[in-house]
């Protein structure tokens, strides 16, 4: 699977987890300020955490135990990996995903262009010393970035204090940033319902924050303010990027305004939930090492004393042996003197079957020093498309260290300490 798709899966998984936590636990609480930071953290963490090696960061705080290292010289051999047939399918998935993201990003740009047109058609004005943009069209009051847009002809003078206070809260607390971040994450993770729900949650929560700030000023009581919201909701809305004086979920806003404030004990939900979500997300994103499905006998390595380190490799009966490019048997391999061996390569399970085209548990190929440059060896490497480096094989270069052969066992001094 391409790395980009792995990244997108990690991001979308984190969004699902944080979205479920918000709607199941936090949304009913009246700590709107904390909810705002939780939602922003959820969006930012989901996008950024795949780039951070959290496991390495945690291990950095641990005191590592001293580990003796025995240097060894290896002669790797590179096996050409067969190109995965499903690679083209992954490319198609990436193209389709990219098209969806491109469509939403284009829509975002069109919304910005629409707001710019509204700005161009409006003119600067002031009300009781507060600057705003006078819009001729009958639109719902809204703010974007640090500017308030209003159509004064659509409102009475008694409504102006609440409207301006509402939009001032949006401007002073930079609510446009929250909306833009949510829109960008939605464009990146457009196929994930959690991205859409979180974007809606961000906008709803910003209105909860603003409604509470307006009611705290005492300019008007909650009932009058709610009637004003109902009246203004009939006006035409502008682009989704703007912070509106009202929006379609008016019922939710009224319910939250009338709801009793949450107990301080509920703050424990944030203290427990956020660390738990981080731990779960990081653990779920750890790479899992799958056990090999090959049924070959394991190659055992026995390291004895550090000064006389040796590598012991048992010779299985159900493997194919090659010596200097020709097929051989286990007895010939067992009788080879290790000082005559230039290199030995072990191909296991499915890799051996794909490379050599036979049903076998594995293949052992040995090249001797005397024949390493022979025509037979060159033809053997060329026939099986072998080069001088490999991945996925057990490869050992024999040294001049004294070694001995045991029955059915090859013992080589493969680990030679260096000064």
From TrEMBL:
The chain crosses the membrane at residues 6-25, 37-61, 89-110, 263-282. It comes from Hymenobacter crusticola. CDD domains: M56_BlaR1_MecR1_like. This is Peptidase M56 domain-containing protein. Residues 135-256 form the Peptidase M56 domain. InterPro entries: Beta-lactam_resp_regulator (IPR052173), Peptidase_M56 (IPR008756), Plug_dom_sf (IPR037066). Keywords: Membrane, Transmembrane, Transmembrane helix.
